Amino acid sequence: MNVDSALAELLAIAKRIGAGNVPRYQHSETFTVGAFDMVFTNLRDVDAFRLLSHACQQYDSIKTDAATLTGFIYLISDLARKSATTEMPPGMQQIVLDNPTQTSELREWYRMDSNV
Asked: What is the C-alpha to C-alpha distance for residues 12 and 15, in angstroms, rounded to an integer?
């Protein structure tokens, strides 16, 4: 897996989610599919953690664009679950601290005190 190209694809989807062009989830009578599922299909947990770590490194360049930030937080929340570990990558705690109202899924996943 090429981390850079996969992350670029995921960030493009996150930007479209944040702009309201793509829903985070689409439901039908028989299944629900997430916007990131096509990229996640063959993603192993170790690769998901690598992508998550790289995504967290992009935070400083994303945090000033509110729409992109919304999709970005959905992305890192999904990657955190896909990684199958509660090990927190560098930068994650700052993302949670900077965005307390948008990161409830992450706080729950990482078992963080809501007062962090």
From this structure: 5
Q: Is 62 left (phi over 0), alpha (psi -120 to 50) or beta?
A: alpha
Residue 56 neighbours by CB under 8 Å, 6+ apart: 76, 89, 90, 91, 92, 95
Decide if 69 contacts 60 (C-beta within 8 A). no
Sign of the Cα torsion 32, 108, 9, 15 reads positive
Question: Strands, E, within the chain: which ranges?
Answer: 25-27, 32-34
Look up the pTM and report it: 0.81
* Beta bridge partners of residue 32, listed in sequence order: 27
The beta strand positions in 45-113, using DSSP E, are none
The single-letter code of the amino acid at 75 is L
Residue found by looking up tokens 């439901």 in the block: 27
**28-77 pLDDT, tens per residue?**
566 555 767 767 777 788 988 999 999 999 999 999 998 889 989 999 99
By the 8 A CB rule, do 89 and 53 touch? yes
